[in-house]
Amino acid sequence: MTENFEQLRQKALSCQGCKLSKTRTNVVFGVGNEQAKVMFIGEGPGENEDLQGEPFVGRGGQLLDKMLKHVGLSRKENVYIANMVKCRPPQNRDPEKDEISACGGYLERQIELIQPKIIVCLGRIAACALIDQKFKVTKQHGEFFEKNGILMMGTFHPAALLRNPYSKPDALTDLLKLKEKLAELS
Ligand code: URA
Q1: Cβ(158) to ligand 1 under 6 A?
Q2: pLDDT category, 186, cuts 50, 70, 90?
Q3: Pocket flag, ligand 1, residue 49 (CB < 6 Å)
Q4: 32 CB under 6 A from ligand 1?
Q5: pLDDT tens figures, 109-127
């Protein structure tokens, strides 16, 4: 079945497609403008996201919002933010392969419906799943790769930037490249 956005969201909210459904508080489907030209994709909800049902609402999310603002982007206006998995992995462990593949259909359909021009992968898990299994964030951040007609870029995960603030200038440079590319495309 090819669901519209609301049908897809409703389906996700009652999903029991993998073991993460057993321990979640809320399904974290995604947030933002469904007509956005750019999508940001993280790894999976953490504790705050699980409690509030929205991606990137903890300290990492605040940093992400601040960096987005710097380049004229905002989850309230012109980006859509989602995760590889929609339910929190216990103790914030990395999502496992079977969980990523069980949840993959939701993300695929979100991408099909939103039709972003650019996808930004936040961190290794999303970049390895969506760009290249061997993606190295420290070496390849900020580069654009074309996949199925969509430009993809990997950059630092906000949680990694909180642990290692020295990478913040590089992350901001990546977002400035994104801004330039968006201007080129419109
Ligand atoms: N980390 C992620 O990858 N996604 C979130 O939504 C929150 C933290």
Answers
A1: no
A2: confident
A3: yes
A4: no
A5: 999 999 999 999 999 999 9
Rounded Cα gap, residues 36 and 28, in angstroms: 18
Q: Which residues touch 164 (CB under 8 Å, ≥6 apart)?
A: none
Quote the ligand 1 centre to 158 CA distance (angstroms): 8
Q: pLDDT, tens digit, for every residue of 86-99?
A: 999 999 999 999 99
